[in-house]
Amino acid sequence: MINLRIGIFGIGAIGGLFAARLVGNMPTLFASEPTSKALQDGLILHEADGAISYLDPDSFITGDKNCQVDIAIICGKSADTNSLASLCNTVLAFDGIAFSIQNGLGHAENLAQILGWDRVLAGSTIHAAIRKDINEVQWTGVGEISIGSLDSSSPNVDDPKVTELMNILDGAGLNPRWENEMKIKLWKKLLLNVAINPIAAIAGIENGEILLKEELWEQSIAVIDEALMVARIEGIEISNLEMHTLLAEVLQQTASNRCSMLQDIMAGKTTEMPSLCGEVVRIAEKHGIPTPLNNQLLTLVGALESSARVK
Fold first, then answer.
1. What is the CATH architecture assignment of 6-180?
2. Among 95, 261, 76, 141, which Cα is nearest to 86's?
3. What pLDDT digit, counting tens, does each position of 110-124 carry?
4. Which of 282, 219, 171, 173 is nearest to 210 (CA)?
């Protein structure tokens, strides 16, 4: 068995969830200064089954640029990818492996530009969590984490480090899956995000409410269908029916979740819309395709952000 040193970069809702579930492996947590300070009091996780776990600060390491890790899990916001990748380049072992589970497209490629493809995998997760406090997280939806190669020079499933990583994630109850079609998986995650996050954020509701209100469900379907048209131009073949079914399943699984975009709006923070609807619009414009719904959501959430910051 390989003794892997795991680093988690960005300790928000998902980063905090992964940190808490991986605590048996003494993870190294790379966080902002306020979060690092709060973690000196430990980390609290409200488990999916209602149990509450308190994680003593001695059960993890607060990371800095002098640490070294074998596995780097990038969980921060899309806007922080470059800074997190630079830090990762400083602390990741020369034969280490990094992957991102951030929202949006292109994160693996951005990491690879800094770290090299031989140290980068693609990742995606549909676990759901909310940040109740700076060092307190609630697991609101049990999902899975998908990992795979995007390039022939990337680590593969036969790599001993990858095998051990999958075992560790499985033991932590994070339901890892090796995916041979990660581009499709990443697009599916993007499609779900554009259909859920902006609508829930604008309406100020938990995810499950979208299923319960016909007009919101219809809007969500219309947005995902528009984005699917863009995906197909990019060579991603996913049927509308498959995505509609998956959307309903995810909304049910995360019914009590307050999506990250709504959490950002409520906290007066910048959202990830440029990496979600903004990415759909950007790709569509490259092909000369109109995307009025995604464009409209991009504008509305931007206005909501500005209003929240003024308050």
1. 3-Layer(aba) Sandwich (3.40)
2. 76
3. 999 999 999 999 999
4. 219
